[in-house]
Amino acid sequence: MNATVQRRLRCAVYTRKSTDEGLEQEYNSIDAQRDAGQAYIASRRAEGWIPVADDYDDPAWSGATLERPALQRLLADVQAGKIDIVVVYKIDRLTRALSDFSRIVEVFDRHNVSFVSVTQQFNTTDSMGRLMLNILLSFAQFEREVTADRIRDKIAASKKKGLWMQGIPPLGYDVRDKRLIINPQEADLVRLVFRRYVEFGSSLPVVKELAAQGYVGKRWISKSGNITGGMKIDKSRLFKLLNNRIYIGELRNHREWMPGHHEPIIDRPLWDQAAAILAKNYRERQPDGHGKVEFLLKGLLFSTDGRALMPWHTTKKNGRRYRYYLSTRDNHEGAGASGLPRLPAAELEATVVQQLRSVLRAPAMIRDMVPAGVALDPSLDEAQVAVAMTQFERIWDELFPAEQRRIVRLLVERIIVAPERIDMRLRPAGIDELARELTAPIQVAA
């Protein structure tokens, strides 16, 4: 008599719940899904189905992402050959995105793993089941996108009625009954910022003046009592404030601005003046157009053999731009001739700036460079030179790229790049000019 040995099929139950609501209950949705899966496996015991010892539960994880701990552990065990069948309560517990589902099924197919839904009676080893799975998942994705569209339409309709739907209001406004109302004290600060920007024609003096007078940004207390904001108004926050059309009575919906129902803080003439200065300063920061690629150290870098390093960049299909410095010797004689690798521009520039910061705030350098600066210009006070050198780090991030390049060239004569080190030669004559420029804004803003 011939005996047939039945193969054991190891079954793993995967469960997921999108939110943490109800998880504190003694018997929750995760438990119900797991029990349904275990019962289904038990019903197929005669066919050799047995449950694995591990649980694969993802509580409070969205189906829109594959970066879920239990799912990643499940896929790892599938690839390790520990699982033969994956059981879920419903297909959307595994994923809601058709593209993600396709990737998961590819993993299952490569390792001969079947996929079963308890409530929908599908098995991916069957061609008809595979077709129905794709159809079902397409409807799940369609439902998700329709729900997202409904939410977006509801938000847009609310904004057209003048309702505030964006969380923390901007400086100058509070929220009452979902509508923006003017905060008089904060509104005075907003008007001051616009007026001073128009008067100075530059952001740096405004930032210095606001900091000197102790002004800060919006401070907000949530319903739960958490305090956010209240940060110093730096250059980036200043530009965000100056470009916010809420201050002239508009509301934003995605990239579109629409008329609001709140009272404006800034009148149109003042807004137009500030906008004109912003546009002018933007053009000056990028004199050769928006597409210009900036290289902070262009013309200053040399290899140990005296050959210059040339700037080079490439743009990938995704639009991301990568900048490098390359040896001209490699360019003419072939890669590797200089002994230098292709140097990432951002990392090299950051290293040089950090060295400049360290050198200029070193006590020994201040002691040696102050007499040199005063000797070049007797009208310059020794204290001004010392202050200029120590303030370099503080003002660096506030400068436009063009100003950063100019100051680096003012201070640096040449940078020698070797495979294992970077040597930088400074210009002593640049210290007195740097002192004048760094002290002048303080006098203007005072």
Q: Concise description?
A:
The protein has 3 domains: 9-145, Rossmann fold (3-Layer(aba) Sandwich), CATH 3.40.50; 173-285, Putative Large Serine Recombinase, Chain B, Domain 2 (Hect, E3 ligase catalytic domain fold, Alpha-Beta Complex); 301-445, no CATH class.
Write the layout of secondary structure elements.
Layout: E1 9-17, H1 29-43, E2 49-51, E3 56-59, H2 69-79, E4 85-88, H3 91-94, H4 98-110, E5 114-117, E6 122-123, H5 127-160, E7 173-176, E8 179-182, H6 184-200, H7 203-212, E9 219-221, E10 227-229, H8 235-242, E11 250-253, E12 256-259, H9 268-285, E13 301-303, E14 309-315, E15 321-327, H10 328-333, E16 343-344, H11 345-360, H12 363-376, H13 382-396, H14 401-411, E17 412-418, E18 421-426, H15 430-445
Parallel strand pairs: 1-2, 1-3, 1-4, 4-5, 13-17
Antiparallel strand pairs: 5-6, 7-8, 9-10, 11-12, 14-15, 15-16, 17-18
Helix pairs in contact: 6-7, 6-9, 7-15, 12-13, 13-15
Could you characterize the architecture of this molecule?
With 446 residues, this protein is α/β, with parallel strands linked by helices. The protein folds into 3 domains: 9-145, Resolvase, N-terminal catalytic domain (Rossmann fold, 3-Layer(aba) Sandwich); 173-285, Alpha-Beta Complex (Hect, E3 ligase catalytic domain fold), CATH 3.90.1750; 301-445, no CATH class. Helices cover 47% and strands 18% of the residues. The chain is built from 15 helices and 18 strands. It has helices spanning 29-43, 69-79, 91-94, 98-110, 127-160, 184-200, 203-212, 235-242, 268-285, 328-333, 345-360, 363-376, 382-396, 401-411, 430-445, and strands at residues 9-17, 49-51, 56-59, 85-88, 114-117, 122-123, 173-176, 179-182, 219-221, 227-229, 250-253, 256-259, 301-303, 309-315, 321-327, 343-344, 412-418, 421-426. The strands form 6 sheets. Strands 1, 2, 3, 4, 5 and 6 form a 6-stranded mixed beta sheet that branches. The protein has a 3-stranded mixed beta sheet with strand order 13-17-18. The chain has a 3-stranded antiparallel beta sheet with strand order 14-15-16. The longest helix has 34 residues, at 127-160. The relative contact order is 0.06. Mean pLDDT is 80; it is low at 287-291 and 441-446.
